[in-house]
Amino acid sequence: MPCPRGNLAKIPGMEKTCPGDLRQKKCSPEKHASFISKMTYSWFNSIIILGYKKPLEREDLFELNDSDSSYNVCPIFEKQWRKNILTNNKKQKFSFHKEAKAKKPSLLHALWNTFNFSLIQVALFKVFADILSFISPLIMKQMILFCENRHDVVWNGYGYAVALFVVVILQTLVLQLYQRFNMLNSAKIKTAVIGLLYKKALNLSNSSRKKFSTGEIINLFSEDAQQLMDLTVNLNILWSAPLQILMAILLLWQELGPSVFAGIAVLVLVIPLNALVANRIKTLKKSQTKNKDQQIKLLNEVLQGIKILKLYAWEPSYQKKITEIRKHELEIQKSAGYLTVFSMLTLTCIPFLVSLATFGVYFLLDEGNVLTANKVFTSMSLFNILRLPLFDLPMVISAVVQTKISLSRLQDFLHAEELNAENIETCYPGNYAIEFTDASFTWEKSQPPTLNNLNIKIPEGALVAIIGQVGSGKSSVLSAILGEMEKLKGTVQRKGSVAYVSQQAWIQNSKLQENIVFGSVLQKQYYERVLEACALLPDLEQFPNGDQTEIGERGVNISGGQKQRVSLARAVYSGADVYLLDDPLSAVDVHVGKHLFEKVIGSSGLLKNKTRVLVTHNLTILPQTDLILVMESGKVAQMGTYQELLSKSKDFTNLLQISSTQEKVHPSKEVSQSNYRTIPKDKMMEQKDSLFLDQEKNFFMKKEKIPTGGVKFSSIVKYLQAFGWLWVWLCVATYLGQNLASIGQNLWLSTWTKEAKQAKDTIEWKQLRNHKLNVYGLLGLIQGFLVCFGAYILTNGAFAASKTLHHQMLDSVMHLPFQFFETNPIGQIINRFTKDMFIIDARFHYYLRTWVNCTLDVLGTVLVIVGALPLFVLVVIPLVFMYFTIQRYYIASSRQIRRLAGASRSPIISHFSETLAGVSTIRAFGHQQRFISQNRDVVNEHLVCFYNNIISNRWLSVRLEFLGNLLVFFAALLAVLAGDAVDSTTVGLIISYALNITQSLNFWVRKACEIETNAISIERVFEYTNIQKEAPRIKSNRPPSHWPDKGIVEFVNYEARYRPDLGLALQNVTFRTHSEEKVGIVGRTGAGKSTLTNCLFRIVEKSGGKIIIDGIDISAIGLHDLRGKLNIIPQDPVLFSGTLQMNLDPLEKYSDNELWEALELCHLKDFVQSLPKRLLHEISEGGENLSAGQRQLVCLARALLRKTKILVLDEPTASVDYETDSLVQSTIQKEFADCTILTIAHRLHTVMDSERILVLDSGRIIEFETPQNLIRQKGLFSEMVKEAGIIQDADITHK
């Protein structure tokens, strides 16, 4: 029966606005299933059969029970966490002990209080299953005694066979219940922790954000929460393993008496050694976690700034940094691998050592002690039961140690400082919309104030402009109003709700309408008014699906201007009381800027009755404002109306004069003067025509491809090649030898007991005993050696495979064309380097080894039983047929469910990364709760897939173990029917082997499926290596070292397209620059300006024609030979975390003196000298601890250092104030006077002093002349100049 879904599958969701998106989902039929169906999971048959017929899709899966969903689990756990915090605070308040006061709320305690009932329930299942596991050897003992005394009633034998069958069936059912609820509990714990982490991330203070980078926080989600989940799965082993060991020892005492203490002594010696190994692994894992954090952080930044790396040809430098971190990680992994050799030895050799010591002492205690069949095989069965807890216990101890590290990291994050609610008073009853009273603020409490002694009163309904130089604190004032900064003293009060437009437009990966409506109720008429006011209607006409067009991650398929206008529209639509606008006109053309000011911000706009605080460098709008704040070094230098400041302040008048001098008679330019540039993918423009949409941005984020069908065997072969064929065959040989040694031990014991019965006297028995004991010990030593050697080989081979595959993937990704990064979400790429590489590093080789072991184990078991009971082959054949039938059905379904589960992980990371990028906007709008709900949606989608995976595993286990139990039953039955033809020793051997086959069969299929499923990670890694790469970085045909020496750029019949299936973005472009010429490139939106730049740097390759620079066809040389000899100052000021010196010179080519000279030329020297560490000043992730203008000036310094003969300018001074703009322009003119400069003009005033202007339209050159001649010709350029208001008709006539 289908049930309506409570939440949207599409993320981000819009519960209020998209009821039509609700899908029908399949409720689980388990509730209404019969008892037998529930116990055998037959209610899941429909999914298994459907999965066999066709590849399963998300809609085919059964939903979770309400109590298990994230919508139920997260709120309950969050409530318990809050309760813990309150309890802890009370204890600290009334405690006088320093230790008690320093104690923080325990995450573990909160988890126990939330899930204690479920955990106890699971523990009870485990106790029952463990007890049942010890009944089987006792029944086997009775079977052996029955076979020794054939005169007993034959029905006793049948009774024992049936009893054995009933016990193993019960054990199977109880064990599967334990496994099911245990796995589900672990998933719920992970869900609860992820929910709490997400909520915490929404409330982190700025100092905490600096402490925890995006990569580190993602690692908490993907690694530490997973570690906690993995431990929960094995948590019961901590008490269960000692219980099983104790029960086994008690039963062994009954068989072998005090000699069992010899076995205990071996255990006592080995367990402390395991503890030492666990401690060492703990230290190694801690180091490895730090390396992983660094790797993810750097990788995230590299992917965010990949265009800059390609333009500057810096990929090898950053690839080397990632490789070095990875090298350290693998060295640690290798060391940990060698330590696991000891664990492998424990698994295999402790049961042998325990049995050897026990048997040896048993003989020494009394020379008359004889090993009978019932003693040997009962003891061996008990020793076999001992093997698993003895192996698992040290592994779980090691996991506990590792989880302790993860818990510590999680608690550090959860205890991190949050934004102080007292930073701002929002329930302000006064007469002003915003009021600062003697207020000082800082970004971190340990740092000096960023804003000092602010006393500001902003009336309701006023339009306030905040102006000032780069780094003067303009944007910080808005952050203080939002409560984002730490208040040191004074008060700041705000009345009503807030809408915020950030410097860097934050766009969600969802439909355009969802970005604007942003969770509010859709009011069609007002929505249309907002679209019109924000100049979005022309764009919607060009979009393929209008406002239902999906916007890619980070807004990659729309221009910078569109991003900014969508961001503004979101704020306007919210209907807030106060609007904080951080230069929303920054990325739009002149006439659009005018439109936005008039229709939205100004006195006749949609916000005319609202309080508007506008940060800007646009001085020409100041007369239209009600209040002006002039910021200087974090203080309000001047405040008043335009007329007041004009009459009272010389500085203000000088500022206006600089602006006027700079722009002469074109005031309208000011409207689009930028305080900050968003991070675009191609260009920053205000609209799109159809060509632009089709060519430059007509792509959307690709959803993760979910493979169907079987895994290609070639993927496993590729892994084995990376592993090394020598290691592969050595591994197989050692595991074969290991299994033969194990079988040899059991057969030797069987022969021993036979011969012991036939020994005529004590002397003969003593000689026989010593000989048998020696051979038994030798076989055990051979097995131990082979185990150690196999583990060593495996560690080396796995290390080689991990190293090779990671290197191949990283190298491939760094060589991929830029278009790849525009269409693939960063979360998806990072998932390959984290989750998929983790599977290759830690799990895949383990699954392969286990599968090989199980295969050999099953074959050995069947051969031993058939050898002893030939009739058993009649039972094996039909059971093998049934076995493979079940396996075929299971693998088809399980494989696809696992793939769905794998694909459902990426949206969790992507949504989280998106949230972190826009956390200030989310908080400003007060939408934290909505985003928390969205997080629960994506987590719940993953949980649904995981739940179906759990049930599919239980479905398989019940059926396979039932077949295994049938083997046990028929083995016992045939032993009874055989009568005197089979002696008691053979019966003991057969039944002990049959009891082991159940687990081996189950493991064999499970690991086969695990190999298939996890081989997808290898497929996914190789998928990136198979994508078409960019052209080679270096070719044999290299240009001369002094090239280019003239700077002549020539396009000859040049044509280019973004994709083979699209039309031409540039058509028959032919032009030639002179040496050292200054050329402006202009055109309406979508004309192909940025495409021209992309082609020059070969970001987009040619479809026809050629580009010649100083006589060399650029397509004939390597990409790095080309890009390394070109220079660009891009719009987007991308910085990377690390030192300022590293950001200026990552290739370490220049001296400190050259760096200081470049900083002086771009007017940053004074600022850098004021920093404590100067050039070694740490730049935070994304350069967030520098202002937007300072980031742009650092980019200018890069260009000054890299001085080449050809420079491309993409409005490098868009983010600086007028005074700095004027100085920078003069620096460019002076320092690059002997260079050819191509200036991409988004605003015409920046190219009016160019020697020639290249005018593009629809990818073609329309005009190419001097500015004066173009204006006289009354063509497209003249028309654009008129529209911009730069030159009036009278001026044109005069000229």
From TrEMBL:
Membrane association type: Multi-pass membrane protein
SMART domains (alphabetical): AAA (SM00382)
Pfam families per UniProt: ABC_membrane, ABC_tran
SUPFAM superfamilies in UniProt: ABC transporter transmembrane region, P-loop containing nucleoside triphosphate hydrolases
Location of the ABC transporter domain: 434-658, 1049-1283
UniProt keywords, alphabetically: ATP-binding, Membrane, Nucleotide-binding, Repeat, Transmembrane, Transmembrane helix, Transport, Vacuole
Transcription regulation in keyword set: no
Subcellular location: Vacuole membrane
InterPro entries: AAA+_ATPase (IPR003593), ABC1_TM_dom (IPR011527), ABC1_TM_sf (IPR036640), ABC_transporter-like_ATP-bd (IPR003439), ABC_transporter-like_CS (IPR017871), ABC_transporter_C-like (IPR050173), P-loop_NTPase (IPR027417)
Domain ABC transmembrane type-1: 120-402, 729-1003
A cellular component annotation (GO) from this entry: lytic vacuole
GO molecular function, one term: ATP hydrolysis activity
Principal subcellular localisation of the protein: membrane
Residues that span the membrane, as ranges: 110-138, 158-178, 259-278, 336-365, 773-794, 858-886, 962-982
Superkingdom of origin organism: Eukaryota
Similarity comment: Belongs to the ABC transporter superfamily. ABCC family. Conjugate transporter (TC 3.A.1.208) subfamily.
Protein's name according to its UniProt entry: Multidrug resistance-associated protein 1-like
